Amino acid sequence: MTKINIPIDCGNSPKREFIKEFNVAFAKGNADFIIEHVSDDIVWTMHGDKKIEGKESFSKEIHKMKEKVADEMTLHSVITHGKEASANGEIKMDGKTYAFCDVYVFAKTTGKIIKRIDSYIISI
After folding, report:
1. In a 3-state reduction of DSSP, which class is residue 41?
2. CA-CA distance, 75 to 21, in Å (whole number)?
3. Which pLDDT score, from 0 to 100, does residue 1 have?
4. Which helix (H) or strand (E) holds 43?
5. Does domain 3-123 have CATH number 3.40.50.720?
6. Nearest alpha carbon to residue 25 among 65, 56, 52
7. pLDDT at position 10, please?
C-alpha cells in the first residue's frame, strides 16, 4: 500500500485538487485514471530520458509503469494558473528516493484534460 503525504490547504481550487489526484494515481499505479485525463495528442517529455507522443503510446507507457507502485509519495506543492499547473515532491520506490517536478498544460483553462507533461526526476 502506498503512503501518501499531501499538505492540507484551503481546498478551493478544483484544478489544484485534480493535480493532487493525478499525482496520487501515478504513485498508486492507477493507469485508467491517468489515461482518462489526457488528450489524444498528449506529449509527455521525461527530460533526460524519452518523449512520448499520442495517447496510444502514452497508454502503453503508463501500463508498463503501473507495475511499479510507490512505497510513499510526498507532494510538497501544487501551483496552477490558467492552462498550466505544476507539482513537485518526493517519491520512494524500491528502497530509493526521487525528487520530482511535473509541469502540466491543459487542453483548456477549464476541464481536466492534460495535453502536455514535462517531467523532471532525480535520485536523491
Report:
1. strand
2. 11
3. 81
4. strand 38-46
5. no
6. 65
7. 60
Alpha helices in the chain (DSSP H): 14-28, 31-36, 55-65
Whether residue 92 contacts residue 71, with contact meaning beta carbons closer than 8 Å, is answered with: yes
Distance CA 38, CA 36 (A): 6
Residue with cell 489515461: 35
Does the predicted TM-score (pTM) go above 0.85? yes
- Give me the pLDDT at residue 80, please: 94
Tell me: the pLDDT tens digits for 90-116?
999 999 999 999 999 999 998 899 999
For the chain, report the end-to-end CA distance as a whole number of angstroms. 22
Rg (CA), the chain: 14
Res 120: pLDDT: 98
Which residues, at least 6 apart from 50, have a Cβ–Cβ distance to it below 8 Å? none
Using 70 as the pLDDT threshold, list the residues of the chain that sit under it.
10-11
Residue count of the chain, please give it.
124
- Please report, for the chain, the start and end positions of each structural domain, with discontinuous segments joined by +: 3-123
